Amino acid sequence: xxxxxxxxxxxxxxxxxxxxxxxxxxxxxxxxxxxxxxxxxxxxxxx
Amino acid sequence: xxxxxxxxxxxxxxxxxxxxxxxxxxxxxxxxxxxxxxxxxxxxxxxxxxxxxxxxxxxxxxxxxxxxxxxxxxxxxxxxxxxxxxxxxxxxxxxxxxxxxxxxxxxxxxxxxxxxxxxxxxxxxxxxxxxxxxxxxxxxxxxxxxxxxxxxxxxxxxxxxxxxxxxxxxxxxxxxxxxxxxxxxxxxxxxxxxxxxxxxxxxxxxxxxxxxxxxxxxxxxxxxxxxxxxxxxxxxxxxxxxxxxxxxxxxxxxxxxxxxxxxxxxxxxxxxxxxxxxxxxxxxxxxxxxxxxxxxxxxxxxxxxxxxxxxxxxxxxxxxxxxxxxxxxxxxxxxxxxxxxxxxxxxxxxxxxxxxxxxxxxxxxxxxxxxxxxxxxxxxxxxxxxxxxxxxxxxxxxxxxxxxxxxxxxxxxxxxxxxxxxxxxxxxxxxxxxxxxxxxxxxxxxxxxxxxxxxxxxxxxxxxxxxxxxxxxxxxxxxxxxxxxxxxxxxxxxxxxxxxxxxxxxxxxxxxxxxxxxxxxxxxxxxxxxxxxxxxxxx
Lengths: 47, 539
What we know:
The complex is a heterodimer.
Chain A: H1 16-34
Chain B: E1 16-20, H1 23-30, H2 42-53, E2 58-65, H3 68-76, E3 89-95, H4 100-108, H5 113-123, E4 124-130, E5 138-143, E6 160-162, E7 166-172, E8 175-181, H6 194-210, H7 217-224, H8 241-250, E9 254-259, E10 261-263, E11 272-274, H9 278-286, E12 292-298, E13 302-313, H10 322-326, E14 339-346, E15 350-358, E16 372-378, E17 384-396, H11 404-421, E18 427-435, H12 436-444, H13 451-459, E19 465-473, E20 476-484, E21 494-499, H14 502-509, H15 513-520, H16 526-538
Antiparallel strand pairs in B: 1-2, 2-3, 3-4, 4-5, 6-13, 7-8, 9-17, 10-11, 12-13, 12-17, 13-14, 14-15, 15-16, 16-17, 18-19, 19-20, 20-21
Helix pairs in contact in B: 7-8, 14-16, 15-16
């Protein structure tokens, strides 16, 4: 195990709005990913 | 006395012969009197090179071998042709070394069966069933992966990791020869197209993993074309992705269908959207031993399906980050993003063939996309080409309902707390599917976990399938999220949080107010629930 002291600890200041905006961006991409598009590019593939 | 050959009038001659391994001996024993292939054929050369790398020196040929898969195809189609096709195959066994006289002694009853069995097992590399057809001569082929391949436990950077393997039992003249690999076979364009061969290889593994029967290629074609088929299903001209999904349901599994790129009209998108983090998604299932059917566009050639069976992690990953491409705002690092190569059963190349992750290139006037896969394929002009990954079909047990992306979603919230807590330490997440048995087996073999956590994990009743999201800070596993894969999308799927690192535990006890507020104000509610779990763990 490495010495835990190497890790600096909590950041001193957080931009709440920016962090929440990042969450929202991820939420949007996750939601889109869970939908299978009706305009599927691979719908007509024959392999 | 030498081993009987085909020319002698000995009853053993009908059974087997031994030959030194060479390209010529390999090809002459795979081919037949009607064979249209040559020994310079790409897939024959691939097999030769593959076996050469495994130091194959001897082959043993079973002259008349009844193969279940070919027999089914024979009964469904070939026997009804006017032209006569043989129903017997040949089976060729590969060895690193073999003493002809010892095997002869064994057959005559003068050798020690235990001793020779031990020697053969040590030298065994697998087998190939040669079908008596004009073109699709390579039938069920089971070969071991190359040495230095990770098949279980933790990955090692720059090493092949092929976890989609199982044990097959061959029997040569009463000697049991177990071999660990995944069966491969070529399409015959009669009962099977590439999609059928890809499904067949995947079902070889999922049958063992999830307990379903292992269908033959003709049965797979039957499942796939049962409901939707415009033209005749046999001779097969290929399957659509919907038909492939139908075949997955035919064996009692569920198809997790993922489209890699989808169309969009969003401004600045260029008309397409990268729909999933491809590398991390594939990694998350392959790491758990679940094979993936990858349907691709091979630039300048056409559409093609292969079975992904493994991967290789690089120290840093490819030049394009799949997670940043998927979510430009993400500040999470995933181990799966470091995949630099995939290994696939490609029925046009061979088993465990390599696909290299690379940025797209323009081939045959097809525009590049951010992530493509370099291959051994050549266009008709002889130039190299790439696979554009189009969709994934992941055959999963019906209780695996929560997909990778949901485990990723949960991990993003914990990652926020970790990177703020350990502000100068890079954090990497290793997210993959696991069965509870594999999980507990791994934990039981570890000595680096505190006794109370170990006992809790081993004794706690867990869901049958779970997503493990392991966080590493400076290569030390600091915590792990256990996500219930049998839960549903509209739920908080976190089953357990294990904090392995004492220092992280101390830090979490001192979590600043503004960090807590961000988690509490998370609109999805994930942050708030996670915070409650953290509070219980640090209490």
